[in-house]
Design a protein that fits this description.
This protein has a single domain, classed as hypothetical protein tt1805 (3-Layer(aba) Sandwich). It is built from two helices and five strands, in the order αββββαβ. The chain is of the alpha+beta class. Helix content is about 25%, strand content about 30%.
């Protein structure tokens, strides 16, 4: 089963945020069909979280049809998140960046389960 194209996913994400009372904006438009999507969540105090596409190695044999994300930065200084996004953009100029302002710190994306400390993540 094919997953939806990036432009459609991003548009749906922005609409979902708005219906849930958060503000979302597309900070960078990437490849409409298959651009990687990064989600930056702005929190009070100039802190931010960053969600990135989940690494392929973490998927089971049956890959999900929808996109999964991994929280790669949690409560970081906004400047640090911006620096990470600049590095990601240098590596992949076709990526998308969605910025969300939400007092509750919600990312509105499905994330991979975080293994407990010391757990082995490879099968």
């Amino acid at each position: 089963m094919a997953r939806v194209v990036s432009s459609f996913f991003v548009g749906a994400l922005v609409r979902r945020c708005e219906t849930e009372g958060a503000f979302a904006a597309i900070a960078r438009r990437g490849s409409p069909e298959a651009g990687a999507i990064f989600v930056k969540v702005l929190r009070p105090g100039r802190l931010a979280d960053l969600y990135a596409p989940a690494p392929q190695v973490l998927f089971d044999d049956e890959r999900p049809a929808d996109r999964l994300f991994e929280k790669v930065m949690d409560g970081a200084a906004e400047a640090d998140v911006e620096a990470r996004l600049r590095r990601e953009t240098d590596f992949d100029p076709d990526l998308w960046i969605v910025e969300i302002e939400d007092r509750q710190g919600r990312g509105f994306v499905e994330t991979i389960p975080v293994p407990p400390p010391g757990a082995e993540i490879f099968r």
